[in-house]
Specification:
Elements lengths: L4 E5 L5 E9 L4 H7 L9 E12 L1 H16 L3 E5 L3 H13 L13 H38 L6 H11 L4 H23 L8 H39 L2 H7 L4 H40 L3 H11 L2 H27 L5 H32 L3
Parallel strand pairs: 2-3, 3-4
Antiparallel strand pairs: 1-2
Helix pairs in contact: 2-3, 4-9, 5-9, 6-7, 6-9, 7-9, 7-11, 7-12, 9-11, 11-12
Length: 374
């Protein structure tokens, strides 16, 4: 039984690949090893099957895979001399080859696991260093704008203030109002058992002013404005608009990043204050309806038991939250590369990381203020 042999006539135009003998799966390994290399830059390749005695699915796959790879490189492949049966088999096998190569499953075992864990650890460390460097660059540019205010792009700043602040007021008010209602309703159920309904005012005020008002506002801003920053600047990065800015001598940090971060620094405290007011209004309304605590008594308890520090503690957090959200969102945008899929991935990562770090930072502030007895 004569196994297949493949010869390449590279002196002709077009180049001819002649297959003779029996092109069967049983000898496919030897045939692949003996397969001659098609010269690079070949425009047309003819595969001559006139002398093929027999061909099965494995042999057809070998030819179809070769043709697919060459066509991907811009070479035209023509098959001549094939019988009708061979042509039908080649067509069936060619149609069955997937358009995308299958991704190899990750290796299992302790060593591969340690390898992946180490690579991810190193990658995370590199990302943290890059993020800190980006944060430092933002601070330098912010100080530069404060020293030379004429370099600030006022139109861009006011546009982003409108997008991140004014247009977010309805959702922030609704969130704050409902948080106040829920706190009053849940507090009433517990405090009424002890005849301490009036203390629901303290519960609402401390919860909203110190923690929930600014924290939930920051979470909303991270999901709403942070994701918008990553998507818009990331799309510019993908379309090489940022490279064009640098070619024109413009600083992308000063043009794109500083106005957005400044808008967050200005508007997040404002939104947090609005959320606090809405939370108190919602709590006062529910206290009046459920516990009979009149609005006048509610306000009197606020003046009596709540000092300015409770409002200040929440407002102190706002600039830090704004810096975290703006830095992470815009750093993720600058990491976009490849295709539009990367924009979606970076936007998701931006929201998740911003919210996670904001919550962790809020916990650090809570511990700090508790230690300081504030």
């Amino acid at each position: 039984m004569m196994m297949a042999s493949i010869t390449l006539d590279g002196d002709t135009d077009p180049v001819v690949l002649r297959v003779t003998g029996r092109l069967l799966t049983v000898a496919l390994g030897a045939v692949e090893r003996a397969m001659p290399s098609v010269p690079s830059g070949t425009k047309t390749l003819k595969i001559d099957l006139s002398d093929v005695e027999a061909m099965d699915t494995g042999g057809a796959w070998l030819l179809a895979d070769l043709g697919r790879k060459l066509e991907a490189e811009g070479c035209t492949v023509e098959i001549t001399g094939a019988t009708e049966t061979q042509q039908a088999l080649l067509k069936t096998v060619t149609d069955a080859i997937p358009d995308e190569e299958l991704v190899e499953a990750p290796a299992r075992g302790l060593i591969p696991f340690l390898d992946r864990f180490g690579r991810r650890t190193v990658g995370t460390g590199e990302d943290i260093v890059s993020l800190l460097g980006f944060f430092g660059l933002i601070l330098v540019r912010l100080v530069g704008v404060l020293v030379r205010p004429w370099r600030l792009r006022a139109a861009a700043l006011f546009t982003h203030m409108e997008e991140t602040g004014l247009k977010a007021v309805p959702i922030v008010v609704l969130m704050g109002f409902m948080i106040g209602v829920v706190l009053a309703f849940q507090g009433a159920a517990q405090l009424s058992q002890f005849g301490a309904e009036v203390y629901v005012v303290d519960l609402i005020a401390y919860s909203v002013l110190r923690e929930l008002g600014i924290l939930l506002t920051a979470i909303i801003v991270a999901g709403r404005s942070g994701s918008a920053f990553t998507a818009s600047v990331g799309s510019m990065k993908l379309q090489q608009e940022i490279d064009a800015m640098e070619t024109l001598g413009l600083d992308p940090i000063e043009v794109l990043v500083v106005p957005r971060v400044l808008a967050l620094l200005i508007m997040l405290p404002v939104l947090g204050f609005i959320a606090n007011i809405a939370g108190l209004v919602g709590g006062a309304l529910m206290s009046w309806m459920d516990l009979g605590v009149s609005p006048g008594l509610f306000v009197a308890r606020l003046y009596e038991d709540i000092d300015g520090w409770q409002v200040g503690i929440g407002m102190i957090k706002a600039p830090f939250f704004a810096l975290v959200i703006g830095t992470i969102a815009l750093w993720q945008a600058m990491q976009v590369e490849g295709s539009s899929v990367s924009v979606g991935q970076r936007t998701t990562a931006s929201v998740v990381q911003s919210i996670s770090i904001v919550i962790a930072l809020d916990a650090v502030f809570s511990i700090f203020f508790s230690i300081m007895d504030l």
